């Protein structure tokens, strides 16, 4: 019987190289990430045994940025061999809970490939022009994500 998947947990600055490598491999933006951003990232680790007592390798991640009252949900990634287990849905729910704890009023995201996934989680298509100037000025909106990326949001 396989080991149960551990819950999403906050990442640390030590996870920064692994997160950057995962995002680069998946052709997702990582250039603006610093080690200081990692505490608002959540990750799921491989529950397999570790020979040296170190935590397992990351198998799924999701990031959060705070922009005033809005949160930017970013960098949702599940390794291909781990897909189909509900990890992405679990990470989104965990980030929504974190955003609530931080007092954010909504989560916003940009995606080129997963709009239907997010719509199924009650995210709505959103006109970028209706977003706060602070959020629109973020690197994700200004330079890292193409203008063709869909913008979706969810009130919390």
TrEMBL record:
Q: Which residues form the N-acetyltransferase domain?
A: 6-156
* UniProt keywords, alphabetically: Transferase
Q: Which GO terms describe its molecular function?
A: acyltransferase activity, transferring groups other than amino-acyl groups
Under InterPro entries, the record lists: Acyl_CoA_acyltransferase, GNAT_dom
Origin superkingdom = Bacteria
Q: Tell me what this protein is called.
A: GNAT family N-acetyltransferase
